[in-house]
Specification:
2 copies of one chain form a homodimer.
Chain A: H1 17-27, E1 31-33, E2 40-42, H2 44-63, E3 67-68, E4 74-76, H3 77-80, H4 84-90, E5 96-104, E6 110-122, H5 127-137, E7 146-155, E8 169-179, H6 182-202, E9 209-212, E10 224-231, E11 237-245, H7 249-254, E12 257-259, E13 265-267, E14 269-276, H8 278-287, E15 304-308, H9 316-331, E16 334-335, E17 338-339, E18 342-344, H10 351-361, E19 365-369, H11 371-376, E20 378-383, E21 391-395, H12 396-424, E22 426-428, H13 432-438, E23 453-457, H14 462-472, E24 475-480, E25 488-489, E26 496-497, E27 500-504
Chain lengths: 507, 507
């Protein structure tokens, strides 16, 4: 760790990307596996990132007229079956509550007792239960639009789990809205997609591509599904948020009707949309490096950590007093509409270990403060967007005054870097051979890192999608909303293609 | 509703208190019963109160060094059995997940499939699962104290449920801390009890009595349980928050040990504490009246609602312009460290209905604005702590300038009123006959409203507690921390009593 060639995280990204990811999550103290299959414990540093994500998104939902509410964790089976596609999509991964009591098993253990009349599913998503409430709440066109959001935990019993990316339980927000017309519901779907994309880029420094899913990747029960797709450092795509236009499918399933101004009863048009703690996995794989995590300042739990360097006891009082004063000055600064978040880490552990802990956690600024810095009225500052040994002494007052601007610089750097990475690994491909070659590992030492985003023509046939998934584990991530719409020829079938779509391997 | 004698809520408190409660919750649009047994849907107005409670408490937890984290929803049965008292306390009300898939039942329905190897309990509280994590996280005295809080949903399968007060699923925060010594853990227990009491009084305008529970009312697995107890308007006690000193019980159950400075391995001392959405039920029963809810300004989703009065179309533009300007001015004011929260309700419904909706919701200030108010540059203001027809015209600029002070007045009034009510119904009782008479309904027309808080001597014998519970449904709510500690004689046994304790009927 101390040598110039070594790194804080082992293995490195190129050595073993999936294992690198797990190690960064661990080293940054974000989360760990719980002693419950497939579940995670989100630790304070990871949870604080989620709280920042919540705070920012919540304000944006509110500004756009949405209100938060809370719906039950449990869904009766009879609700789930109401929408045929929906139940088919979720039935295989539902946690089912069947009993409401425990009794002694006579051997010092417990067993379930008192069976429920109707088993309950732990919500994998809430369209059906919220639909049942909307049916009660909506009577007339005056009750529309109804714009509701919920922050909640959901459970999907996945067989292969990975911290943040795919866990049996995860935290998310789910928006559910009802509208009088298809046009309004589609406008809502797009409004949220834009909101998600802007959030990802501006706050997570994670550039994304907005697009529509093909039928095979659609949300079960949706008419159309839109998503934002980000490129991770193994060049795979991460679906980072989805917005669904549900048409009248759920309105019909739950009998959500309204009386129009002309007195005619009609079904409403609904949408649903969500982002989850998966975003934190995306953050790690967008900005992490072989020294750990780098957190974009706008969502960082702390912007600055102050690390007092005390080699001799007689300097302690002076250094600590300087550090406390510095802390207050920093906290009095504003960044992104909030007080700057700073911590003073005075724990009694080895200075080198402490510095590396904070590098791994990805705090934007580390300020080492020893007697010499006090004497010079300066701070010895390290930025997480630069090398761990690339530090500089900056006069205290200057650092404090420039801090908001410096944080913006880091935020911008992280975004620019992620954009450049994505651009470097996005290609247009026009032949099947090139396509197969692009998505085949070249270096057997690095099987995980290859490929990227391929913009290719596609005739629209799902058979092509199935074949590519089978052969290469590649799928159409989306039909980009902003890309070129020039027609061409599908390299897989030779048939005409209305436009290029985005292919990639995906999480 | 329009007459002078009538009220917006029917039945009134004296007519049928339990039904009045349900009607206020409904009329204030706080929550409703979900189509899942015992569960509730928290609607936007109710959820916004909870969000304010969260925001305020969260800041206080943070100031006192606590950090938020998130632990799994599911607890393996093998964890729950580790602490014998604990499992005994919760086994009868646990929702149990036994399967992780659904399959067709061949009749258009679904049935559970794929049984879990070990059934999982939906957390009724998280001591055991958090204890398992603490055992991993804590190695040395340097890791202590460990101060963690979680905002989460929990499930307790209660047979009789009531919105907010007792529901199968509810939202809460649960603090869990570990300390090196019993003294530090006890200091934490008391710190949080004080914090809860201050919060209840200062923000919810709900005066509470702090005290320790007797053994029969202790949290399952705790060494001692402390609570805050508030008096509702039917004079029953509501336990509004608890703080538990867990000793080393859970440390031993979960093997949470640390290496002391002297190198000796010891068990930690833990605490846990929580408040829940039950507080909203307490709010309703503290401040609600026969016209609906009154929300204390510090936790009100909106401080002010502006209600444009438009009788003729030609005045619309002028009135609306004035209202929008007023809205901006009001929102630019600060109250309790935040921007004043105001809404403009321009819905196209009858003015009288609209005003009453807001009275029932309990918004602190209603401002009716019609052409005459515009002409006078004034607002026609109604305060929720005064009668619904007691309104006054106030010059606009004066109202805006004085708003923070006026909100404080309302907040103070609500607290003073609740304190006076509690004092009026708190008595010292020294004979068994008086005690039985106090807790027996006098008026058969009002069976629900009688009694109050009785401060009585008690010899300490649990037999007395059982007898009183059986005869009168009265229990010892707490041994008050701040009350008189003069010794006396137990009116039930004639034996000596070290001090008076607090008896009441309770939710």
């Amino acid at each position: 760790m101390a040598g110039t060639q070594e790194h804080a995280i082992s293995p490195t990204r190129t050595e073993d990307y999936p294992e690198w990811y797990q190690q960064v999550v661990r080293a940054a103290d974000l989360a760990e596996n719980a002693p419950v299959r497939g579940c995670m414990v989100i630790k304070p540093w990871g949870y604080a990132i989620w709280e920042n994500i919540q705070r920012i998104l919540d304000a944006k939902f509110r500004e756009t007229g949405h209100r938060n509410a809370y719906f039950p964790l449990f869904i009766p089976l009879s609700f789930l079956v109401k929408e045929a596609q929906h139940v088919e999509g979720f039935a295989k991964e539902c946690a089912v509550v069947t009993h409401h009591r425990l009794e002694s098993d006579g051997q010092g253990g417990l067993r379930p007792a008192a069976p429920l009349e109707e088993p309950l599913v732990v919500r994998p998503t809430s369209e059906t239960i919220i639909g049942a409430m909307f049916a009660k709440w909506i009577q007339s066109y005056r009750d529309l639009p109804l714009l509701i959001n919920q922050w909640a935990n959901v459970v999907r019993w996945e067989m292969r789990t990975r911290l943040f990316l795919r866990t049996a339980e995860f935290l998310w927000q789910e928006g559910h809205t009802a509208h009088a017309t298809a046009e309004e519901a589609m406008a809502e779907t797009c409004l949220i997609l834009d909101l998600y994309a802007e959030f990802a880029e501006r706050y997570l420094a994670m550039p994304v591509i907005k697009g529509e899913k093909t039928e095979s990747e659609r949300f079960p029960g949706a008419v159309s599904t839109f998503s934002i797709e980000a490129m991770m450092q193994d060049r795979k795509a991460l679906q980072a948020g989805t917005s669904h236009f549900l048409g009248q499918n759920f309105a019909k399933a739950s009998e959500i009707k309204f009386l129009g101004p002309a007195g005619r009863e009609e079904y409403v048009w609904t949408t649903s949309w969500g982002v989850s703690t998966r975003l934190i996995g995306g953050l790690v794989m967008t900005h992490g490096d072989d020294d750990g995590l780098a957190v974009p300042p706008r969502v960082a739990p702390a912007h600055v950590v102050i690390l007092p360097i005390i080699h001799k006891e007689e300097t302690r009082a002076q250094v600590m007093e300087y550090c406390h004063r510095l802390l207050k000055e920093i906290q009095a600064q504003q960044y992104d509409g909030q007080a700057v978040r700073a911590e003073l880490d005075a724990r009694d552990i080895r200075g080198g270990d402490k510095v590396w802990e904070w590098i791994k956690k990805g705090v934007p600024f580390r300020l080492e403060v020893g007697p010499r810095d006090v004497a010079q009225d300066a701070v010895f500052a390290g930025r997480r967007d630069k090398g761990p040994r690339e530090r500089e002494s900056i006069p205290r007052a200057e650092f404090v005054a420039r801090l908001p601007q410096l944080l913006d610089e880091i935020q911008d750097n992280l975004l620019a870097r992620a954009k450049a990475f994505r651009e470097a690994h996005t290609v247009e491909i026009d032949s099947k051979d090139d396509f197969y070659s692009f998505f085949t590992p070249k270096n057997p030492e690095e099987p995980e890192i290859h490929g990227g985003f391929a913009l290719c023509h596609w005739c629209g046939d799902p058979v092509v999608e199935n074949q590519l998934k089978e052969d290469l584990q590649v799928s159409i991530r989306c039909i980009p909303l902003d890309g070129s719409t020039e027609p061409g020829t599908c390299p897989f079938t030779g048939r005409p293609s209305p436009r290029r779509v985005l292919f990639a391997k995906a999480y």
